[in-house]
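Tokens in:
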């Protein structure tokens, strides 16, 4: 199974395609993962990244309605280093970037592609706007409760994009030290707009942010 980026700019529009040889992608990402990603270790530190901005990739993230589990193989397929173009992620400019894929324990056919950056973020709202700007939206982005009373000025915004004949849910968070894009593919996307569960993705995104910033599973 190969995962193909359909639209540049931000993290959008992935389509699951049958067939294809992803061996190279797995090998390339696998080497990168071994060098920089231990189980639940801090990831993606740039030379000037503040200590408090270090992001982790926990193996398990507590979430509702089911905990999320990290998938190294899917991460290698979705984010092969050879195909990663930093210019496609303007919202992460100047940040130390980290990629990961998670599945809800109760529905492994759902894939959450997570692309994050840690560092100093001076304008959270602008970063979120930059993430959504290149995308064709079927449902306009709206703000959700980040469920973090200490995150002053932070933003969590979610919407539904249309690409490759499917409706694709996506959420973006930004705060003073991190930005994260979360896209739902597999069974999280649908050819029917009514079947896309944006509220659940917003909750999962909030939980992922908390776990990745704290370096713990919840």
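Residues out:
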């Amino acid at each position: 199974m190969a995962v193909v980026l359909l639209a540049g700019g931000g993290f959008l529009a992935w389509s699951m395609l049958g067939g294809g040889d992803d061996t190279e992608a797995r090998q390339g990402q696998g080497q990168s993962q071994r060098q920089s990603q231990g189980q639940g270790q801090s990831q993606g530190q740039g030379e000037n990244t503040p200590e408090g901005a270090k992001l982790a990739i926990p193996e398990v993230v507590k979430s509702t309605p089911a905990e999320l589990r990290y998938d190294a193989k899917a991460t290698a397929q979705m984010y092969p280093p050879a195909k990663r173009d930093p210019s496609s992620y303007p919202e992460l400019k100047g940040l130390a970037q980290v990629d990961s894929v998670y599945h809800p324990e109760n529905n492994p056919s759902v894939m959450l592609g997570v692309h994050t950056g840690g560092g100093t973020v001076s304008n959270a709202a602008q970063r979120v706007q930059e993430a959504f700007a290149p995308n064709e939206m079927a449902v306009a982005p709206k703000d959700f409760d980040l469920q973090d009373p200490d995150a002053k000025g932070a933003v969590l915004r979610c919407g539904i994009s249309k690409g490759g004949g499917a409706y694709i849910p996506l959420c973006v968070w930004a705060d003073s030290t991190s930005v994260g894009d979360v896209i739902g593919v597999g069974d999280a996307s649908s050819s029917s707009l009514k079947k896309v569960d944006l509220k659940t993705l917003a909750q999962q995104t909030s939980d992922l942010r908390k776990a990745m910033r704290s370096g713990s599973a919840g």
